[in-house]
Every structure is written in C-alpha cells, then in structure tokens.
Description:
alpha+beta, 12 helices, 12 strands
Amino acid sequence: MLKKVIISLIALVVFTSGTFLLFLNELYIAASLATLLTIGIFVALILQYQENTKKLIFTLNALESDDFAFHFDDRFSKNKDTDKIFNYMLNRIKNMTERHKLELEERERYYETMLERADTGIIAVDNKNHVIYRNAKALSLIGLSILNNLVQVKNIDTGLYESFCNADEGNDQKVSFSNEHGNITLSIACSRVTIKEKDVKILAVNNISNDIEANEVEAWTRLIRVLTHEIMNSISPVASLSETLSKFYGNENAELKEGLDVINKTSRGLIDFVESYRSITRINKPIRKAISFKQLITNILTLEKEEFSINDISVEVTANRDDIMLYVDESQISQVIINVIKNAIQANANKLKISAFIDKDEVIRIEFANNGAPISKSMSEQIFVPFYTTKPSGSGIGLSISKKIMQNHDGAIQLLRSNEKETVFLIVFR
C-alpha cells in the first residue's frame, strides 16, 4: 500500500513539474518538488499509521474476547515491506497468546481432575457465600446434587450451614448431621486466598465418622477386655470352690448344700454372662469371598422363615441392580443381618422391606425398613453401645458385635431414622 501511494505522488509531482517548468525557474521548481515529496511521504506515513493502528486495535479486541480465528497476510516479498513485517508481528503475538491460553486450560483440567478424584470435599466461596467451585466429593458428603450458595445447606441441616459459615483459618469445625446416606460427622478446615482482588474462602471437608466409630469401638473393646478379665479372675475361684464344698459337705447338711449350689449356679451364670461379652473382643478377622446379594438374602430368609411365620411378618426384597456382589465373610455378615431382623421382630413389626442399591460411587447400601415400634431419640444414641439394652432378656451385645463386624469389613451400620411410620437400619459396604 505504501508503494502505491508513493508512486502516485511521484506521478503527480512529475505532472505538476512539467507544467511549472513553463512558468518558474529552476530553483523554484526544485523547491516545489522537494516540498511535494515531503508532503507525500508524510501523508503516506499517516495513512500507514492509521492502518496499523486499526490492525492493532482489532488484534487486542480479538485476544480479549478469546477469538483466535484471524490471520494477517505476512508473506514476505523480496523487499520485505514494512506492512508485512507488522502483520507478522501481530500474528506472532496471537500465536503466543493462544498457546499460553491452551497451556493454562490444560493445567486447569489437570488440577480439576485431581480435585474431582480427591477423597476430600473442596468448596470455594466468596464473601457473600456464593460457591465459586465445589467438587463431586463435597456434594456427596453434604447430600446435595447442586450447590450454588452455602444457604442451600440449610435444607440439609442448620448446624452444618452454621459450621460452614463459622469455619475460618485457625477455627476448624466439627459437625454431625443426617442425610440420605445416614449419620455423618464432618471436619471442616478453612484457608483464605485472594483471587482477582476478591477474598475467597476454601473449605476442606472430610468425613471422620469412621475414625470416630473406630475409636469408640476400640475403647469399648479395651474396657470389655479389662472388665471380663478382672471379673473372671474373681468369680472363677468362687464357682470352683462352691462346687467342691457342695460335693464334700453337701450330704452332711442339706441347707449348706442348697446354699453352695445357689452360689455355684449364680457364679456359673455370671461366668457365662461375661463370656458372652468376651465375644465382642474375639471377633475373627473376616475371611472374604464373593457372594451375590440375592443369594445372601435368600439364605438368611430361608433360615428365618419359621420366625417370620410365627410372628406373621411379610418380607419384601428389592435391588436397583440384579448383579450386586458383596465381597464379605458370609457367616459374619449373616449374623449382622439376622441381628437387624431380630430387632424388627422384637419391635412387633409385621412388615420388613430390604432394599439394596449401588450409588454412583460404587458404594453398596442395604436398608432394612420395618413398621414396628419406633426407637426413641435417647435410645437411638445408645443402641450400638455395649451392655445397653431395653429388653428384659437382652444382653446388649447384638448391635455392638454388628458394628464391630461392619468396621472389620470397612463398612458401617447405622440407624438411619425411626418414627411412627418406619424404622430403618442402614448397612454400608464401601
């Protein structure tokens, strides 16, 4: 373009010079020619500057809009004119910017994949509690499918919402609540960062329910081990001595024999009682084998068929998939399920519904719902505690053993809910 302008100006100058030669002298002609050439070059530079400015503005606007679908002609001629050099520079800036953007996007996808696969829930919120980012684990832990603002957590549990709001650096939170997956205890840690001049709070959420349960079970196991040891050491000699004395002196004194027999019987009963509690500390390590849920339940229902008939209980079994497989110790898990079924029978239920399903995290959940008498809130907090029972003939170890067995299977057993309509126990295999 610059060449064309200069050639046109030169032609104009030549034409004008021919006319002027008729009227002006040589000095005037030379001065006029120089002036016209200067004006021509100045005009050409202005036009070139305006053209380049338009290209630069267009390039900046396109890059700002992430539009890389443009290209300027930068094929050099032999003379490599200025216009093509400028085009080449703009194209190079575009290519570098596009490459840098692609690298950033690839890095973002990498970190996002890592966060999505993390076993820790991550939630980033601004100072108005708008959720900037959350991973799938966070949604799963809370029990929501969508989370755009922390206020949505109120629908799950008010205490959980308050814990999220109160969490700050140096002020970690721990909160327990219930959702569709059962009773959960979360720890919430907080970090603060500044992104684009905005204060952002990053919340790290972890499920510590299993750790708490494991610590509780271990504490009870140690206590039971100590108590049973001390009781057995004290009562065994009494049982043995009373039996020996009854044999030697019982025939001489009937009253003495009767008293010694009572002592021996009571001692033996106490020994048997203590031995039943020792079973909590003697649960063998599970020997796992693959078995289908359908087969496991069929075996158990066949075993309990007479109980269901005597108590007039109807049983319904459902599953969201026909191929649900469990990798468990069949005898131990059967014991857990039988304990849950017996609780339903003792609650005078006449309907029992067993539902199994696999969620999106490949976690197997089995719910046992019955329409028996509800469990009070105070009782629900104690039913898995060893020795606790509300039944006159109960030992208080059935659900305690079940909890220990599920812990050994890296799973859990919970009372999901209990009201006038139904009582639901949940068994989870992770």
